[in-house]
Amino acid sequence: MEFAGEIWYWRGPAPWYFITVPDEESAYFEAESNFVTYGWGMIPVTAEIGASVWDTSMFPKDGRYILPVKAAVRRAEDLDDGDVPTVRLRLRS
């Protein structure tokens, strides 16, 4: 699955960068979640941005899923808050 999404910064007690998965793609992952989730709605995925590939888990927020974007990926792909990279996701089991 491929989409473009804006990187945003969450300034909570454990600050992190995320990309919100669009509605249509979130609906697909929601439909598949019973087969792969390991609790709290977390969905394991392999994510790709540019040449960077990493295993992570998305989690539900406000009716969609959000994808955490590691600092190493942001540095390697020269990304920051507000950038809109193309993201590729594959479900992991």
From TrEMBL:
Q: Sorted alphabetically, which InterPro entries does this protein's record hold?
A: AF2212/PG0164-like_sf, DUF1905
* One Pfam family in the UniProt entry: DUF1905
Supply the name of the protein: DUF1905 domain-containing protein
